[in-house]
């Protein structure tokens, strides 16, 4: 029973809009810091590093879509 409760908590947490916007903030901050410092993090391929900005924008879009979905559900 506790395992099912933990799974429900995990799903709710993953579907929360703030989780995605926080992930987008962290990815964007790391990417921007590396770009400003003109340093590529060791062990990260250049092709993966160049995806930092699009990944952060994607996280923000998912977060705002979940927020809009939540607000639409609450207004009904």
Automatic annotation (TrEMBL):
<keyword id="KW-0614">Plasmid</keyword>
<protein>
    <submittedName>
        <fullName>Uncharacterized protein</fullName>
    </submittedName>
</protein>
<keyword id="KW-0472">Membrane</keyword>
<keyword id="KW-0812">Transmembrane</keyword>
<feature type="transmembrane region" description="Helical">
    <location>
        <begin position="49"/>
        <end position="69"/>
    </location>
</feature>
<feature type="transmembrane region" description="Helical">
    <location>
        <begin position="20"/>
        <end position="37"/>
    </location>
</feature>
<keyword id="KW-1133">Transmembrane helix</keyword>
